[in-house]
Amino acid sequence: MATATRYGYFRDALYYLACSEHLSFGYVDLPPLFPFIAWIARHTLGTSLPALIFWPALAGAARIVLAAAFACELGAKRYGIALTAALAATPAVWWVIDHQFAMNAFEPLFWTGCAYAILRMINTQNPKLWLAFGAIAGLGLENKYSIAIFAFALLFGLLLTQQRKLLFTPWLFAGGAVALLIFLPNLIWNIQHHWPFLELMHNIRGTGKDIAYPPAAYLAQQILMMNPFTFPFWLGGLLFYFFSRAAKPYRNFGWAFIITFAFFLISHGKDYYAAPAYPIVLAAGAVAVEHFLSRPIEQQTKWRAILKPVCFAWLIAGVAIVLPLVLPVLSLDAFVRYQSHSPLQPKPTERSFVGTVLPQYYADELPWQEQVAAVARVYHSLSPEEQTKTAIFCDNYGQAGAIDFFGPRYGLPKALSGHQNYFLWGPRNYTGAIVILVGQSESEARKEFASVEVAATLNIPYAYSYETRPILLCRGLQWNLQAVWPRVKYWR
């Protein structure tokens, strides 16, 4: 929260705020829960940067508490619970995610919540907890579809262990019915709209947008993403599930982690896709450390007195090293200098990020207000009559979301775009007679319009090159925009 206003609004946050003005049971690239949270945010705390960052920060705090509760249920005592909480607060990926107004911050709550329901079920042998599992999984599906992978991994993990008896109960089907009932509105929406999310995923695969790393590089990314200083703990937690007698009843969680990890490795998922699975191995790692430090060996009191605080000091040292890389505590110039001397530099996940100075999560906070101001200068250079028929068409949802968010203070109309859900919101009453193009190249625009002029230029240091293309004022679209709108669809 202290760094909430350091840089600017994250691209996806602007898009989700735009989605919250079009509440629906589904969207092209996401389920409906987070746009509804964005709607609540807009109508309660507001849309200032601190007000928006409050929500993912709150989710991050809840993740820490839930991970500690999971460790407690695994049998951790006071030290193990405290160490789990520290481990849940340490990974680099969550410093990034908890600083972004997006659904990713809420994802670990649903994944760990499902795992916690199964853990309680194992300890109590109460199959009615499948109802809780179903409710959490259903809400998780309304937040992000990837929870289906982890839920399957949890079920398959049970099947591979002595706890498989928990699967053979009608309460499992009751829990599945609860999940289906919660997910049903989004399922119906996807059917009615011919499965746009599947089309989107197919297009992403087909274009090679994401970079596929080989297994060794992917594992290195995982270690870096979670902060190398936590690696001994989560690896120890995974081994604890498989080789400790005390953890034998909970071996299914080790299998669940491996299955989830393997799926994203084989499918070439981005490194952070697996991040919500880590609380279960971090908690196990803390329990393993606690068990080790409580073993009856000679001079155990002396070693315990030394090693217990050393674990926390180790984690604090790790945070101190990576913090400037994952949280905007430095100015941009200072960050670039720090990054150039740091060995802990994550690799890009998309081809468009290759060769950029800033990581994507910082660069995507930079150009928006300056870009909107430039568009406004072009728009207000037109006569009032021309303004009424001038559309602002953006190449991607970040630009369009910025126009929709900052535009009212400049007197701008809402943006158009063919990207993701903006395509479904249509061209409104615009015909294409006059269009302000944002993010498109001049050469491509000349193929579509009778007249194209560079109306404004952008000079925004560290922003992506495709976000600083000149603002184009175009006249005379060769086709009526209403008739050719299906051609502008851009789902990838």
Short description:
α3 runs antiparallel to α4, α4 packs parallel to α15 (300-326) and α6 (107-124) runs antiparallel to α7 (130-143).
Description:
This protein has 23 helices and five strands. With about 500 residues, the protein is mostly helical. It has two domains: about 10-325, no CATH class; about 370-490, no CATH class. The protein has a five-stranded mixed beta sheet with strand order 2-1-3-5-4. Helix 3 runs antiparallel to helix 4 (about 80-90) and helix 12 (about 230-245) crosses helix 13. It starts with 10 loop residues before the first helix and ends in an 8-residue tail after the last helix.
List the helices and strands and how they pair.
Blueprint: H1 11-19, H2 33-43, H3 49-74, H4 78-89, H5 92-97, H6 107-124, H7 130-143, H8 147-159, H9 170-192, H10 196-207, H11 215-225, H12 231-243, H13 251-266, H14 279-293, H15 300-326, H16 332-340, H17 360-363, H18 368-379, H19 384-387, E1 390-394, H20 397-410, E2 416-417, H21 421-424, E3 434-438, H22 442-445, E4 449-456, E5 471-477, H23 481-484
Parallel strand pairs: 1-2, 1-3
Antiparallel strand pairs: 3-5, 4-5
Helix pairs in contact: 1-2, 1-20, 3-4, 3-6, 3-14, 4-14, 4-15, 6-7, 6-8, 7-9, 8-13, 12-13, 12-14, 18-20
The class by helix and strand makeup works out as mainly alpha
Flag low-confidence runs: none
User: What would the principal axes of the Cα set say about the shape?
Assistant: globular
- Average pLDDT works out at 93
Please tally the helical runs, counting DSSP H or I stretches of 4 or more residues: 23
* Terminal CA distance: 32 Å
Write down the secondary-structure element order: HHHHHHHHHHHHHHHHHHHEHEHEHEEH
Biggest sheet features: 5 strands, mixed
Alpha carbon gyration radius = 25 Å
The side-by-side strand order for the widest beta sheet comes to 2-1-3-5-4
Percent range of helical residues = 55-70%
Let me know the number of strands: 5
What's the number of structural domains? 2
Taken as a percent bin, the fraction of beta residues is 5-15%
